[in-house]
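Hello forum,

I keep getting stuck at the same step: I have a sequence, I want structure tokens, and every attempt I make locally crashes halfway through. Rather than fight my setup again tonight, could one of you with a working pipeline run this one for me? It's a single chain of 242 residues.
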Amino acid sequence: MITAAAWSRTLQARGNALLAVLERHAPRLALAWLAIAGAGSALRLSGHYGDPFAWLPYAVFTLVPALALTAGLALFGGRIAPPVLARHPLYGAGGLMLSLLLALLAAILLRGLSFLTAIPAAGADSSPWLGALHSWLTADATLACSLYAIAFAAGLRRSGHFPALLASAWAIDLAMQVIMTGAARGMMLPPEVAAAFTLLLHGNLTRVLVSLAIWMPYLLLSRRVAITYRHEYPARLTRVVS
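Reply #2:
Ran it on my machine without issues. Output:
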């Protein structure tokens, strides 16, 4: 019979193995995003490939988050923890922190899929309201995916900027939903489109607020976060080492 301690060790070993895979193959995540977002964009652009007004927003949506992730992984790779902290069992991006990193990857994918399925391509001959709505949604999806990608890179690389970057990403994401709600009033949207747009914004708001409710207490109270990202010395650790 498997004991609780043995089950805990098994889960920890699997988590460590998954974290090692993420750390080793993190640059390939940018390629995965290019493949997924590029394929989805190509499907949306069917019949509009010759119209730069149609494909340019999708090119931005596909390329910018991949560049943001690549830049983040390169920029946040140089911070070295003091040896006394690096030896602590809670140092690193394991445990619940790994779950948060996976949640960020899921948030990027969901936001991207939401954008690709929410609105058709808008070309040069599209109505003004469709062009305006497409521009707003492109900016929102590109910004959100890029910010969460940078936060993911900072968390994976154990950067001290991670908590602030993630909090900023949440704040900007929330602000964008509020700004788009106000901008929708001036777009002269058809009633059914306005209702669908409002539903989309509410869905984005709900996801961000749920993430805040789940993970903000963890960022504030977790000893792992304090040790790994803020380089705080727990009193008990100081006594043990000394």
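The CA atoms of residues 4 and 10 lie 10 Å apart. If your local run keeps crashing, start a new thread with the error log.
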